[in-house]
Amino acid sequence: MSPRWKDDGYVAPEGTRVALRVHDDACVSGFVQKSNVEERANGPYPETGCFEPPHGP
């Protein structure tokens, strides 16, 4: 999981992210944590493949 700012520093939440390219123009990505689960179908990103690029400030 991507680190997040909390209190006075970055912490990495427990969990894992996965992404699979299932076709030239299709991906399945998601994450699993103790508190929740998410999955989605999307196309590949030029910068990061099947993972969604991080958002800028």
Overview of the molecule:
- It contains no helices and 5 strands.
- The protein is an all-beta fold and 57 residues long.
- A hairpin with a 2-residue loop joins strand 1 and strand 2 (9-11).
- It starts with a strand and ends in a 15-residue tail after the last strand.
- 2% of the residues are buried.
Structural class: mainly beta
Q: Describe the oligomeric state of these chains in a short phrase.
A: single chain
Radius of gyration, whole Å: 13 Å
Q: Would you count the extended β strands for me?
A: 5
Largest sheet descriptor: 3 strands, antiparallel
Question: How are the SSEs ordered, and which strands pair?
Answer:
Blueprint: E1 4-6, E2 9-11, E3 16-23, E4 26-32, E5 37-42
Antiparallel strand pairs: 1-2, 3-4, 4-5
List keywords for this structure.
mainly beta; three-stranded antiparallel beta sheet; 57 residues
In short:
The protein has 57 residues and is mainly β. It contains no helices and five strands.
